[in-house]
Every structure is written in C-alpha cells, then in structure tokens.
Write a structure and sequence with these properties.
Blueprint lengths: L3 H14 L3 H12 L4 H7 L6 H40 L18 H15 L3 E2 L5 E3 H4 L19 E2 L11 E3 L4 H10 L4 E10 L10 E11 L4 H15 L7 E8 L2 E13 L4 E3 L4 E11 L1 H6 L8 E8 H9 L12 H7 L22
Parallel strand pairs: 1-5
Antiparallel strand pairs: 2-4, 3-4, 5-6, 6-11, 7-8, 8-9, 8-10, 10-11
Length: 367
C-alpha cells in the first residue's frame, strides 16, 4: 500500500493550483476516475488479508472523502470566479441609447390601460382590484343576476368545480366581468366611493371581435344625491379626453342590465365608409359602453343602504377601445404574440400616458 498521506498532499496541492474548471476535472479523473490513483488503490484491497483490508479501507475512505471535499470547494470557487469574469467581459453599458431597430414596444392594451387610468385618475377615481377566480355570489348573485340569466349558462361562462362541494351553486367561475370588484369594494369601504376596476375577464366566445379572455374597465361612484346627470357628465368628459377631441357627439339609448336601473348604452358619433371609421362628427353612431344607476339590490348586497345612498356604474372593454382609437381590425391579433404586429401598433416604452403630458401623443404610436 502506497503512502496515502503523500498522495493526499500531492492531490490537494494540484487541486489548489487548478486555475480552470477543465483543469480541475482532469485532476478529479486522475484521482477518482476508473484508472485514477485512489481507484487503483481501492482495487488492490482484494489482495489483502481481512485485518489489513479493514485498516487500509478505512484509510482510503478518509483519503477519498478529503479529496472529494477539496474538489467540491475548489469547483465552487472556480465557478464563482469564472462567472465574475464572464459578466465582466459581457458588461453592457446601460447608459447608451438603445438601437432603434432593437427597441421594444408597449402593447396597445397596456397603453390603453395607462390612458384610462390617467383620465379617471384626474377625475378623482382610485384603481381597485380583485381576484380572477370568483365565487358565484360576487360574480352573479350580488349583481342581481338571477340563476336563469343567459350569462350564467355554461356556454357563456367558465365554471370551476369546488373541491369541497358537489353542489353546482358552490362552483367557482373565472370572472365574466370586473363588476365583482365593485361588490368587494362596497363590502370593504363605506361611501363615498369612486373607483375604476380594470382587469382581465373571461367568457366562452371567440371571433374577430370576441376572445375567451379580454380586458375590461368598470367604474363605480356611490354617494348621496348621485344622479344620471353625474353619470352622463363623467362619461362625456371621459370619451372626449380619451379620443382627444374637443367635441364629440354622444347619445344614450335605454337598455337592460341586471345590476343597474335605469340602464343605458352610450353611443358616440362617427363617420363610416367602406374603408374607414372616423370617430367624431358624422351621420353614424357607434355603441361604446354600457352604464346605468346602481340597482338597489346591488347596494344591499354590498352592505349599503339604498335609501341613503345611490350611485352609477359603467363598463367598457379596453380591447375595444384600442381597436377604435388605433384602427386595429381584429381582436384576435392582440394575443397572437406577433412581433411584427407589435412593432406596427405598439408604443414607445417609458412614455407613459398622462393628462398633462398627453395620451397617445405622448411618445406616439410606432405606426
């Protein structure tokens, strides 16, 4: 049996001198590989007596463990040093201006989100959020939507089984509207309330103007003596600011929504031709959003006395707003992850929309 201490000293010295991971691996193979020094010594144990084998095996195991430990520590040290060297060699000067051909673009939906928040923020609205997975109370029941309403049918709504119940009424839904955030806000906050609730919503639909997942923003105002005139004035100021027009014809048509009474749909003036749709003065009308006075049953469900408070609510699709304002013909293209489409319709990063700095003109579209 060779002098294990001498072998150990030699191997540890070689390990300490290794300057690269490749050199360290060669040392490991020379010591612990199939034909390595320690491996060969292990093979020689078979020729020893039982007593000698026991003592020699113990010594060789200690040698092997010490070498393996030294190899691992050196490996970590070399990896850290090599990573630092690599990062230093690949350093990027972030103070340099980005190359125009490499510059990213803000998605139109993200741009619309910033524009909507900027406008309503100027009006004193706060942004409220809620979960995408909702119970049926917040998504339907509290919003005065009866069990037989078409929106609650499985062909329109995505249901998720409740693992703790076999009752269908206890099933969860992927929210069909951000109106559920209005209920949660009323439960947690006393009037006056002035919020917008932007976010993703989900419905079982798919064509050029509908997708299973889309973006919606809903508004809610609750206080004493709120009237339909406040609703109309708020929405009129919004559409003028959003479409960046000094004057914009609007009209309201009676409609029906379970959670508002009276309910209306808001139309804006436009000019339609076979090849163009222009928002503003014209002889045509375009429906843009639904609105109305909050139904007393909805106020009660949110824990608010309808004899003391009243309010208005509205909802509009942010994807639809983007299509109208920026001339995007097909909603499905929003979700295709086509970089060419994003370069065409996207917006310059870091130029955030604001009422003081401008909305879509602040930075401008890439088109």
């Amino acid at each position: 049996m060779e002098n294990t201490e001498a072998i150990k000293t030699e191997l540890l010295a070689e390990i300490a001198k290794a300057e690269t991971s490749k050199a360290l691996e060669e040392i490991r193979v020379s010591a612990l590989g199939k034909k390595g020094k320690i491996t060969e010594l292990m093979k020689g144990l078979g020729a020893l007596s039982a007593e000698e084998k026991k003592e020699a095996g113990k010594t060789l195991n200690v040698l092997k463990n010490d070498v393996e430990k030294a190899l691992e520590e050196k490996k970590v040290s070399l990896e850290v040093a090599e990573m630092k060297q690599k990062l230093e060699a690949e350093r990027v000067d972030v103070t340099l201006p980005i190359r125009p051909e490499k510059q990213g673009r803000i998605h139109p939906v993200s741009q619309i989100y910033e524009e909507v928040v900027a406008i309503f923020g100027q009006m004193g609205f706060e942004v409220a959020e809620g979960p995408d997975i909702e119970d049926q109370f917040h998504n339907f029941n509290a919003l005065n939507t009866p069990a037989n309403h078409p929106a609650r049918q499985m062909q329109d709504t995505f249901y998720i089984p409740n693992p703790d119940s076999t009752d269908f009424d206890d099933s969860y839904v992927v929210r069909t509207q951000t109106s559920s955030v209005q209920i949660r806000t009323m439960e947690a906050q006393r009037p006056p309330i002035r919020i917008i609730a932007p976010g993703r919503t989900y419905r079982s639909d798919y064509d050029a103007t509908h997708t299973p997942m889309f973006h919606q923003v809903e508004g809610l105002v609750i206080d004493k003596n709120i009237t339909m005139a406040h609703l109309k004035g708020c929405l009129y100021d919004f559409v003028k600011a959003f479409f960046e027009l000094d004057e914009l014809p609007v009209r309201y048509r009676p409609s029906y929504f379970p959670f508002t009474e009276p309910s209306a749909e808001m139309d804006i003036g436009c000019k339609k031709t076979k090849t163009e749709l222009k928002i503003g003065a014209g002889d045509s009308w375009l429906e843009i959003l639904g609105c109305g006075m909050v139904h007393p049953n909805v106020l009660r469900a949110g824990g608010i006395d309808p004899d003391e408070y009243q309010g208005f609510a509205f909802g509009v699709g942010m994807d639809r707003l983007a299509m109208l304002k920026y001339g995007i013909p097909d909603l499905r293209m929003f979700f295709d992850s086509d970089i060419r489409w994003l370069k065409h319709y996207g917006f310059v990063p870091l130029d955030h929309a604001s009422m003081t700095g401008g909305l879509s003109n602040n930075g401008g579209s890439a088109r």
